[in-house]
Amino acid sequence: MPEVDLNSKLAELLTNHGVNVTAEEEFIDAHLPFPVKFKARAIYQELNNYISSQLDVMAITPDGTRILESFGDFGNDIDAAISRNLVNFSMSDLHVLLAAFGATDEDMLEQITIENWEINNTQWIAYIGNLVPKTNITVPDLRPPDEFFNAITTSIFSRPLSSNLHWFRGYYLQHDNKITAKEFIMDNEDITTSNSLFSSLPVIPYSGFYSCRNFIILRRQLK
Hints:
By secondary structure, this protein is an alpha+beta fold. It has helices at residues 7-16, 78-100, 106-109, 146-158, and strands spanning 3-5, 21-23, 28-30, 36-47, 50-60, 66-75, 113-119, 122-128, 132-135, 165-175, 178-186, 189-190, 209-220. The strands form 2 sheets. Strands 7, 8, 9, 10, 11, 12 and 13 form a 7-stranded antiparallel beta sheet that branches.
Protein backbone atom coordinates (compact mmCIF):
# COMPACT_ATOMS: atom_id res chain seq x y z
CA MET A 1 0.00 0.00 0.00
CA PRO A 2 1.18 3.59 -0.59
CA GLU A 3 2.89 5.26 2.37
CA VAL A 4 3.03 8.90 3.50
CA ASP A 5 5.74 10.25 5.83
CA LEU A 6 4.00 12.22 8.58
CA ASN A 7 6.97 13.27 10.69
CA SER A 8 6.40 16.92 9.81
CA LYS A 9 2.74 16.70 10.89
CA LEU A 10 3.72 15.03 14.16
CA ALA A 11 6.46 17.60 14.78
CA GLU A 12 3.86 20.33 14.32
CA LEU A 13 1.57 18.64 16.86
CA LEU A 14 4.40 18.40 19.39
CA THR A 15 5.44 22.00 18.86
CA ASN A 16 1.85 23.15 19.33
CA HIS A 17 1.95 21.40 22.72
CA GLY A 18 5.03 23.35 23.79
CA VAL A 19 7.58 20.62 23.03
CA ASN A 20 10.84 21.62 21.37
CA VAL A 21 11.77 19.20 18.62
CA THR A 22 14.66 18.51 16.29
CA ALA A 23 14.02 16.80 12.98
CA GLU A 24 16.43 14.03 12.01
CA GLU A 25 16.52 12.06 8.77
CA GLU A 26 14.16 9.36 10.09
CA PHE A 27 12.97 10.49 13.53
CA ILE A 28 11.85 13.52 15.51
CA ASP A 29 13.79 14.22 18.69
CA ALA A 30 11.39 15.47 21.37
CA HIS A 31 13.30 17.45 24.00
CA LEU A 32 11.48 16.27 27.10
CA PRO A 33 12.74 15.44 30.64
CA PHE A 34 12.71 11.79 29.52
CA PRO A 35 14.18 11.94 25.99
CA VAL A 36 12.17 10.20 23.30
CA LYS A 37 12.19 9.97 19.51
CA PHE A 38 9.05 9.79 17.40
CA LYS A 39 8.27 8.56 13.92
CA ALA A 40 4.94 8.74 12.10
CA ARG A 41 3.65 7.43 8.78
CA ALA A 42 0.34 6.52 7.16
CA ILE A 43 -0.50 3.77 4.73
CA TYR A 44 -3.70 3.90 2.71
CA GLN A 45 -5.82 2.28 0.03
CA GLU A 46 -8.87 3.22 -2.00
CA LEU A 47 -12.03 1.30 -1.11
CA ASN A 48 -15.11 1.99 -3.22
CA ASN A 49 -15.50 5.78 -3.13
CA TYR A 50 -13.31 6.62 -0.13
CA ILE A 51 -9.81 6.28 1.26
CA SER A 52 -9.05 3.90 4.13
CA SER A 53 -5.91 4.89 6.04
CA GLN A 54 -3.82 3.72 8.98
CA LEU A 55 -1.60 6.03 10.99
CA ASP A 56 1.38 4.34 12.68
CA VAL A 57 3.20 6.22 15.44
CA MET A 58 6.40 4.94 17.03
CA ALA A 59 8.04 6.30 20.19
CA ILE A 60 11.57 5.14 21.02
CA THR A 61 13.34 5.66 24.35
CA PRO A 62 17.15 5.91 24.70
CA ASP A 63 17.36 2.25 25.79
CA GLY A 64 15.63 1.14 22.60
CA THR A 65 12.16 0.54 24.06
CA ARG A 66 9.55 1.03 21.35
CA ILE A 67 5.91 1.99 21.76
CA LEU A 68 3.90 1.26 18.62
CA GLU A 69 0.37 2.59 18.12
CA SER A 70 -1.91 2.47 15.07
CA PHE A 71 -5.08 4.37 14.20
CA GLY A 72 -7.43 3.48 11.37
CA ASP A 73 -9.87 5.85 9.71
CA PHE A 74 -11.28 6.93 6.36
CA GLY A 75 -12.08 10.01 4.31
CA ASN A 76 -13.18 11.22 0.91
CA ASP A 77 -9.51 11.72 0.01
CA ILE A 78 -6.11 10.99 1.55
CA ASP A 79 -5.84 14.39 3.26
CA ALA A 80 -9.22 13.97 4.95
CA ALA A 81 -8.43 10.42 6.05
CA ILE A 82 -5.04 11.39 7.50
CA SER A 83 -6.56 14.39 9.25
CA ARG A 84 -8.99 12.04 11.01
CA ASN A 85 -6.11 9.71 11.90
CA LEU A 86 -4.24 12.56 13.57
CA VAL A 87 -7.30 13.72 15.50
CA ASN A 88 -7.77 10.17 16.79
CA PHE A 89 -4.11 10.00 17.86
CA SER A 90 -4.35 13.40 19.55
CA MET A 91 -7.45 12.42 21.50
CA SER A 92 -6.23 8.94 22.43
CA ASP A 93 -2.46 8.86 22.94
CA LEU A 94 -0.68 12.17 22.51
CA HIS A 95 -1.27 13.68 25.94
CA VAL A 96 -0.53 10.37 27.67
CA LEU A 97 2.79 10.06 25.85
CA LEU A 98 3.81 13.64 26.58
CA ALA A 99 2.93 13.40 30.28
CA ALA A 100 4.66 10.04 30.69
CA PHE A 101 7.86 11.47 29.21
CA GLY A 102 7.82 14.51 31.46
CA ALA A 103 5.84 17.30 29.78
CA THR A 104 4.32 19.62 32.38
CA ASP A 105 1.98 21.91 30.41
CA GLU A 106 -1.08 22.35 32.64
CA ASP A 107 -3.61 22.47 29.80
CA MET A 108 -2.20 19.20 28.43
CA LEU A 109 -2.21 17.48 31.83
CA GLU A 110 -5.87 18.39 32.31
CA GLN A 111 -6.72 16.18 29.33
CA ILE A 112 -5.71 12.95 31.10
CA THR A 113 -5.79 11.33 34.55
CA ILE A 114 -2.61 10.70 36.55
CA GLU A 115 -2.77 8.32 39.50
CA ASN A 116 -0.41 6.47 41.82
CA TRP A 117 -0.95 2.72 41.63
CA GLU A 118 0.55 -0.04 43.76
CA ILE A 119 0.88 -3.29 41.81
CA ASN A 120 2.66 -6.32 43.25
CA ASN A 121 4.20 -4.19 46.02
CA THR A 122 5.66 -1.78 43.48
CA GLN A 123 4.68 1.87 43.13
CA TRP A 124 3.74 3.10 39.67
CA ILE A 125 2.60 6.37 38.13
CA ALA A 126 -0.33 5.66 35.82
CA TYR A 127 -0.94 8.06 32.93
CA ILE A 128 -4.48 7.28 31.87
CA GLY A 129 -5.97 8.48 28.61
CA ASN A 130 -9.62 9.18 28.02
CA LEU A 131 -12.11 6.65 26.77
CA VAL A 132 -12.28 7.71 23.13
CA PRO A 133 -15.42 6.56 21.29
CA LYS A 134 -16.18 6.54 17.57
CA THR A 135 -19.61 6.07 16.08
CA ASN A 136 -21.42 6.66 12.80
CA ILE A 137 -24.48 8.31 14.36
CA THR A 138 -24.79 11.02 16.99
CA VAL A 139 -26.49 9.41 19.97
CA PRO A 140 -26.80 11.42 23.21
CA ASP A 141 -25.05 9.92 26.26
CA LEU A 142 -23.85 6.82 24.41
CA ARG A 143 -21.09 5.50 26.65
CA PRO A 144 -19.07 2.28 26.71
CA PRO A 145 -20.05 -0.20 29.40
CA ASP A 146 -18.20 0.13 32.70
CA GLU A 147 -16.92 -3.40 32.14
CA PHE A 148 -14.66 -2.15 29.33
CA PHE A 149 -12.43 0.08 31.48
CA ASN A 150 -12.72 -2.32 34.43
CA ALA A 151 -11.39 -5.11 32.22
CA ILE A 152 -8.39 -2.96 31.30
CA THR A 153 -7.47 -1.96 34.85
CA THR A 154 -8.14 -5.38 36.36
CA SER A 155 -5.96 -6.96 33.70
CA ILE A 156 -3.13 -4.50 34.32
CA PHE A 157 -3.17 -5.23 38.04
CA SER A 158 -2.95 -8.96 37.33
CA ARG A 159 0.07 -8.77 35.00
CA PRO A 160 3.70 -9.38 35.97
CA LEU A 161 5.38 -5.99 35.48
CA SER A 162 9.14 -6.30 35.21
CA SER A 163 10.24 -3.17 33.32
CA ASN A 164 10.33 0.45 34.39
CA LEU A 165 7.87 1.37 31.63
CA HIS A 166 4.77 -0.46 30.39
CA TRP A 167 1.92 0.57 28.12
CA PHE A 168 -1.52 -0.80 27.38
CA ARG A 169 -4.24 -0.34 24.80
CA GLY A 170 -7.80 -1.53 25.15
CA TYR A 171 -10.19 -1.45 22.21
CA TYR A 172 -13.51 -2.90 21.26
CA LEU A 173 -15.96 -2.53 18.37
CA GLN A 174 -19.62 -3.41 18.11
CA HIS A 175 -21.84 -3.29 15.05
CA ASP A 176 -25.54 -4.09 14.80
CA ASN A 177 -25.71 -5.28 18.40
CA LYS A 178 -22.74 -7.62 18.08
CA ILE A 179 -19.18 -7.20 19.33
CA THR A 180 -17.09 -7.77 16.21
CA ALA A 181 -13.60 -6.87 17.47
CA LYS A 182 -11.80 -6.56 20.79
CA GLU A 183 -8.17 -6.03 21.63
CA PHE A 184 -5.97 -5.76 24.70
CA ILE A 185 -2.34 -4.89 24.02
CA MET A 186 0.53 -4.85 26.55
CA ASP A 187 3.94 -3.57 25.44
CA ASN A 188 3.01 -4.10 21.76
CA GLU A 189 1.93 -7.72 22.42
CA ASP A 190 -1.66 -8.81 21.81
CA ILE A 191 -2.79 -10.61 24.97
CA THR A 192 -6.53 -10.43 24.31
CA THR A 193 -7.07 -14.19 24.25
CA SER A 194 -5.38 -14.65 27.63
CA ASN A 195 -7.83 -12.27 29.25
CA SER A 196 -11.23 -13.75 30.00
CA LEU A 197 -12.60 -10.31 30.99
CA PHE A 198 -12.43 -9.14 27.40
CA SER A 199 -14.42 -12.15 26.24
CA SER A 200 -17.47 -11.12 28.23
CA LEU A 201 -18.00 -7.44 27.42
CA PRO A 202 -21.70 -6.58 27.25
CA VAL A 203 -23.26 -5.13 24.12
CA ILE A 204 -24.71 -1.63 24.23
CA PRO A 205 -28.31 -1.78 22.97
CA TYR A 206 -27.59 0.29 19.86
CA SER A 207 -27.84 -0.98 16.29
CA GLY A 208 -25.06 1.04 14.70
CA PHE A 209 -21.27 1.24 14.61
CA TYR A 210 -19.61 1.99 17.93
CA SER A 211 -16.03 1.56 19.12
CA CYS A 212 -14.00 2.71 22.09
CA ARG A 213 -10.29 2.97 22.75
CA ASN A 214 -8.14 3.59 25.83
CA PHE A 215 -4.38 4.05 26.24
CA ILE A 216 -2.40 3.88 29.49
CA ILE A 217 1.30 4.18 30.32
CA LEU A 218 2.81 3.01 33.60
CA ARG A 219 6.12 4.39 34.81
CA ARG A 220 7.79 2.79 37.82
CA GLN A 221 8.48 5.16 40.70
CA LEU A 222 12.20 4.75 41.28
CA LYS A 223 13.54 5.11 44.80
